[in-house]
Write a structure and sequence with these properties.
By secondary structure, this protein is an alpha/beta fold. The protein has 2 domains: about 140 residues, Serine Threonine Protein Phosphatase 5, Tetratricopeptide repeat; about 120 residues, Glutaredoxin, CATH 3.40.30. About 50% of the residues lie in helices and about 10% in strands. The chain is built from 12 helices and 6 strands. A 6-stranded mixed sheet has the order 1-4-3-2-5-6.
């Protein structure tokens, strides 16, 4: 009997592979909405579409535990990228009398601009426009005044900023990843309903992924980790992994990780554990290694059940 990943493990896997969010009403490359601020708690007023710098607009709240965890990280990034013309702004929809004492207590740990939204107008221009409902959440606004990245401030923000200031940021590739993720979501919905259009959509996804290992891995995990689909297409997932392996001189840690997930969900836990350990050996990022180690532990625990 095949064992299933828990919903918590599934979400963690999505984060680990840096899945791009599905296409939104607003798209990457669109002009950034102006900041409509009621009160600037810390720092001087900022206009993000002034063509003078790069801005990170992050949405948070004092009552949000993950937001509190993110604050020191944002301060570190502000320090790291300040000389490259990057300005961080934390926006909350709470009242000044709640936010001000919190910011004062944080002191240097929250060393970037902080502002209170004006009747949630800024939330509407960013979170609602991109159909995001959770915080913390961040947007990068380029010198051109366009939104060129959005996501969790703890996943991908630092990498994106590094590429932007170095002039190596590939917006076209990210747009492609967003479109692919949106099509994958469409496929998942069709497959759950056993819609006759699902196989054709799956073949199209495989064609769209081409020889891009990251998209092929995303497709494979998107198929097998969708626990709401009672007829998961394991053959297609394995085909995607095979294509990813063929596209690289040797399997990367991301490919090995995706392959391990497919193996586990296909009912081969011993092979999955061995493959995930290979992913750990091939990875040189400590945070990713730690995640893979947790996956191995999860596989081992489920194998013993």
């Amino acid at each position: 009997m095949k064992k299933l990943l828990s919903s918590r493990a599934f979400l963690a896997l999505l984060v680990a592979l840096a899945f791009a969010p599905a296409a939104r009403a607003a798209q990457l490359g669109d002009p950034a909405a102006p900041l409509k601020i009621k009160t600037w708690i810390k720092g001087s007023p900022v206009e993000v579409n002034n063509g003078k710098g790069i801005y990170v607009v992050e949405f948070w709240a004092t009552w949000c535990p993950p937001c509190r965890t993110t604050i020191p990280h944002l301060t570190e990034l502000q320090t790291k990228f300040k000389k490259q013309g990057v300005t961080f702004i934390g926006v909350t929809d709470e009242d000044e009398d709640v936010v001000k004492p919190f910011v004062e207590k944080m002191g240097d740990k929250m060393d970037y601009a902080v502002a209170c939204d004006d009747s949630r107008a800024t939330f509407t221009g960013y979170l609602q426009a991109y159909e995001q409902r959770s915080i913390p959440y961040a947007f990068i606004v380029a010198k051109s005044g366009a939104v060129i990245w959005h996501g969790s401030p703890m996943s991908g923000l630092e990498e994106a900023l590094g590429q932007i200031v170095a002039g190596k940021y590939d917006l076209a590739a990210l747009k492609r990843a967003h479109r692919f993720a949106a099509n994958l979501t469409d496929y998942q919905e069709l497959a759950r309903d056993s819609d006759e259009r699902a196989p054709a959509k799956a073949r199209q996804l495989l064609d769209d992924a081409g020889k891009d290992p990251d998209l092929l891995c995303q497709l494979a995990i998107g198929i097998v980790a969708d626990l709401r689909n009672r007829k998961r297409d394991f053959a297609l997932a394995q085909k995607a992994i095979a294509a990813a392996e063929a596209a690289t001189p040797k399997p990367t840690h991301k490919i090995l990780h995706a392959k391990a997930v497919v193996l586990f969900e296909s009912g081969h836990p011993a092979d999955a554990i061995r493959t995930e350990k290979s992913a750990i050996a091939a990875c040189d990022d400590d945070k990713t290694k730690a995640f893979y180690e947790r996956v191995v532990k999860f596989f081992e625990e489920r194998q013993a059940d």
